[in-house]
Amino acid sequence: MQRIVILIAGLILTVVAQCAAGSDVPKSLKACGDIGEFPPYSYYAKDAEHSVATVTGFDIDYLNALFALSDRHVTYELLPWKRCLTLVASGQIDLVLDIAKTPERERDYQYSNFNYTLTPIYIASKSHRVPKLEAPDDFAKYRICQPLGWDYTLAGLPLNSVTVRPYTLDSAVKMLKLGRCDAFLINIETLDGLRRIGKGDFFDDSDLTFPSLPWFPKVPLYTAVSRAVPYRDELVQLINHGIEQFDKTSDAMHLRETYLKTPKPTK
Predict the structure, then answer these.
(1) Model's pTM, two decimal places?
(2) Is residue 10 part of a domain?
């Protein structure tokens, strides 16, 4: 009998602890991501009825469902990336979306278990030479584009490997076609995401090829919490516990099927 009482008491304490977790976290939270958009994870979509662009994507729908479990609400902004990082680091915004983990960043942000990895590929033009990128040293043999705001060093590519810096993804493709650069790195999920939201079907361009980089390290991206907010530990705990709860539901599976479909094969 005594053992049963102890087990029941332990169960009650566990339930109470779970209920108390995140009790200091405000009911209304703020999150930001990169204004450059990152489909299918975070991007703008227009409301057909009001023609107003709102932030949507897998991250947004998943986090909304996760926080709804504790009766909380999140507002989202897509901002210039450095501004977003600064605002989160200072505690003016609670969460940053789609951020890679580095030792420097861990001083400002506390990382949750909400993460995913991307599949690296590169794009080249068949009208010009198609690079053979079979090892890191091969990048030095070619002219590599890196759109402004993108950071290849997080995946281990030296800065001196980048020779051209176009402003956008479209500009990078134009430079490829003009022969001003030989390749640029991207991930297949974003290319497929752009296609599905109607912002460019690069896969259908017969002049482009999309070789894989199976040796290239995959970079996991996270949703991270500002270390400047006093409830940071409780917020991370709330997210991690919410993941455990939400991932058991059919809604979580439906979200993945909706946003994270298998991309088109490379060619």
Answers:
(1) 0.79
(2) no
